[in-house]
Design brief:
The complex is a heterodimer.
Chain A (H helix, E strand, L loop, with lengths): L12 H12 L4 H19 L2 H11 L8
Chain B lengths: L28 E8 L3 H12 L4 E4 L13 E3 H9 L3 H7 L1 E2 L2 E6 L2 E7 L11 E3 L2 H17 L4 E4 L3 E7 L4 E7 L2 E12 L6 H5 L4 E2 L4 E11 L7 E5 L8 E7 L3 E7 L6 H5 L1 H12 L5 E12 L1 E3 L3 E2 L2 E3 L5 E2 L7 H21 L6 H27 L4 H16 L46 E2 L2 E2 H5 L4 E5 L6 E4 L2 E8 L3 H8 L5 E5 L5 E5 L4 H11 L4
Parallel strand pairs in B: 1-2, 1-11, 2-8, 5-14, 11-20, 24-26
Antiparallel strand pairs in B: 3-7, 4-7, 5-6, 9-10, 10-11, 12-18, 13-16, 13-17, 14-15, 15-16, 18-21, 19-20, 22-23, 24-27, 25-26, 27-28
Helix pairs in contact in B: 1-4, 1-8, 2-3, 8-9
Chain lengths: ~70, ~550
């Protein structure tokens, strides 16, 4: 099991971010919510590691303690 | 078959009232065991006890089998238990077997699946069979046992009015068409269903209500030739925002479950003029069908805090209730009595201390919690409770149409499988290095082909020493129990299910076919210690 990587890891960060926004362009709020949900599931499956997924959930909650 | 003009089996009294000599006795007659409720669980318990020579009386306030199909899916483990009770094979033959399931979302089919059950088991992963047939087979088995003198009796139209635990027995007051009579039981098993009058009489209630919903359940006799498959709809046009299920049962009867939500007018929804348009929308305008039975089913996910209350023991829906997804009601109830009856017999015989019965509580509460967890998860998927929960659910369904990865996340009910009693006080620590996890202490034994037959049929219903490539005495007496050895060859299935990486193995198997302990080789002292533990003497 590997640890959740919370350091910069995406080459061309600006390009990726622009691509993410572009994917949502012209969508209604409902369509965007659905896209985000599908994206989360696709990414989660790619990661697969249950420990990393749990750590990612904790990290995304922005709680006080550091994620394990 | 003439469908509507004949009397259905659930309309004919199957255990009509007959006056018992107990009603004319000067003092209350005491029975070894009394079971309240002649449903699948009560009859299962009574047959199990009577097969072990325990005298048992079943009381039921009705005199017929269950009305309508009700519980329709029976899983492999209950069929194996029923085989031990002498009626699993008939049921498996009568039942409809299916492997293909189809999942629909909105107006389209998103995917289909084939269950492809593991090979080398005598019984199928599960069958569809109307509950009235199930009960009829059990009653037939009771009659067959009575003919050979087994101490078992069913009393129809015997309604229990009062129950009082007296410490060394239970006092009962029973109402009949001829009036009331008192009765005593050394042990009372309450299998009187989700609304358990026994539970109410004793002032006990369910805890942990989790979820509430209503389902319109219809048995439909159809001329249409639908394939033998399980069809499940999420949010279909004919039942917007809800789910629907179509299942095939024997005799051309189809079972349809339509989710209705919580806040509905039950009487209004049940009227044929409201039901028939719904079914037409689902099946198509041209399909000819007859409505055999319709009911509104309400469920909650909850359980009693303790299943054993002194000399009164609760089993089945009386003890725990789950949502219908995954067929965990009747299936888990039969596992309750499978767990209970051998223990009760040992306690009655004085072979085991009364505290052995507390392990029934520990093990079956664990089983109920697992079932409640699984069925609650299915419920959460089928009926999302928040906007985001629905968005995620719909995302899973949309993805499942295109990508295989999302299909395991689709949850329209998880197949009911028996639970492993991890952490049970009856288990002895695993001593078989490299042994498969699926057969660790506490696990239900997996079936495997054995000679002309199968392993589970040969294990039967008593303590057994299963040896694979290991020496052991052919029988031993220990703590007043006779334990026979069953020596088997390391066939590929046995190797995979019982040996794993190990060269040889010795398993101590409980009467309910759960593993109590396992070792690489036989050691008399270790077996004795494990047996003591398994019967609650430690």
């Amino acid at each position: 099991m590997s640890d959740l990587n919370l350091t910069p890891n995406i080459p061309g960060a600006d390009d990726f971010y622009a691509e993410l926004l572009a994917a949502h362009e012209g969508l209604t709020k409902a369509e965007s919510d659905a896209l985000n949900a599908r994206l989360v599931l696709v990414l989660a499956n790619h990661i697969g590691d249950r420990g990393v997924l749990s750590a990612a959930l904790t990290a995304a909650m922005l709680k006080e303690e550091e994620p394990a | 078959m003439n469908q509507m003009s004949d009397r259905k089996i659930f309309e004919v009294p199957l255990y009509a009232y007959a006056r018992s000599p107990d009603q004319d006795a000067d003092t209350p007659v005491r029975h070894k065991a009394v079971v309240i409720g002649a449903g699948p669980i009560g009859l299962g318990a009574a047959i199990d006890l009577a097969q072990q020579g325990v005298e048992v009386v079943v009381l039921d306030d009705n005199d017929k089998v269950s009305f309508g199909s009700r519980a329709v899916c029976y899983a492999k483990r209950p069929l194996e238990i029923l085989d031990r009770l002498g009626c699993g094979r008939e049921m498996a033959e009568k039942g409809v077997k299916w492997n293909i399931g189809k999942v629909f979302f909105d107006e389209r089919q998103v995917y289909d699946f084939n269950l492809l059950p593991e090979e080398g088991h005598e019984f199928p992963a599960f069958i569809n069979l109307q509950q009235y047939y199930f009960e009829e087979y059990l009653v037939r088995r009771v009659r067959e046992m009575q003919e050979t003198g087994a101490p078992i009796e069913i009393r129809g139209l015997n309604k229990v009015l009062r129950v009082a635990d007296k410490g060394d027995h239970v006092d009962l007051l029973v109402d009949t068409p001829d009036g009331e009579y008192p009765l005593q039981a050394e042990w009372l098993i309450a299998c009187d269903g989700a609304a358990s009058p026994t539970r109410s009489m004793m002032g006990l209630d369910f805890v942990g209500r989790v979820f509430e919903d209503n389902f319109l359940i219809a048995d439909v006799v159809m001329e249409a030739d639908f394939p033998t498959e399980r069809w499940f709809w999420f949010d279909p046009p004919f039942n917007r925002g809800q789910s629907a299920l179509l299942h095939k049962q024997p005799d051309g009867v189809w079972r349809i479950d339509l989710q209705l939500g919580w806040d509905i007018d039950k009487e209004e929804e049940k009227k044929p003029e409201n039901v028939i348009p719904r079914l037409k929308a689902m099946l198509g305008e041209d399909v000819k069908f007859e409505l055999e039975w319709v009911s509104i089913y309400t469920f909650q996910c909850r359980r009693m805090e303790k299943f054993r209350q002194g000399r009164v023991i609760f089993a089945g829906d009386a003890a725990h209730q789950v949502s219908p997804f995954g067929a965990r009601g009747a299936n888990s109830g039969l596992q309750d009595t499978d767990n209970l009856c051998w223990k009760l017999k040992l306690v009655m015989d004085g072979t085991a201390p009364e505290t052995l019965l507390d392990s029934y509580d520990v093990e079956r509460v664990h089983g109920a919690d697992e079932n409640i967890m699984n069925s609650t998860r299915s419920t959460d998927f089928i009926t999302p409770k928040s906007e985001m929960s629905r968005i995620l659910r719909d995302a899973v369904l949309d993805l499942s149409e295109r990508y295989e990865f999302a299909r395991p996340l689709v949850n329209s009910g998880r197949l009911s499988v028996p639970c492993t009693y991890d952490g049970s006080p009856l288990n002895t620590a695993d001593a078989l290095q490299g042994g498969p996890a699926r057969s660790r202490p506490g696990s239900p034994c997996a079936d495997a082909p054995l000679g002309e037959g199968y392993l589970l049929g040969q294990l039967g219903g008593r303590f057994t020493l299963l040896t694979i490539g290991a020496e052991a005495p052919d029988s031993l007496t220990c703590e007043g129990l006779e334990i026979d050895r069953l020596a088997v060859e390391a066939t590929p299935e046995i190797r995979e299910r019982y040996l794993g990486e190990a060269e040889s193995a010795v398993y101590l198997i409980r009467p309910d076919q759960h593993v109590a302990a396992r070792w690489p080789s036989f050691d008399a002292g270790a077996v004795e210690a494990a047996l003591k533990r398994a019967i609650g003497k430690e």
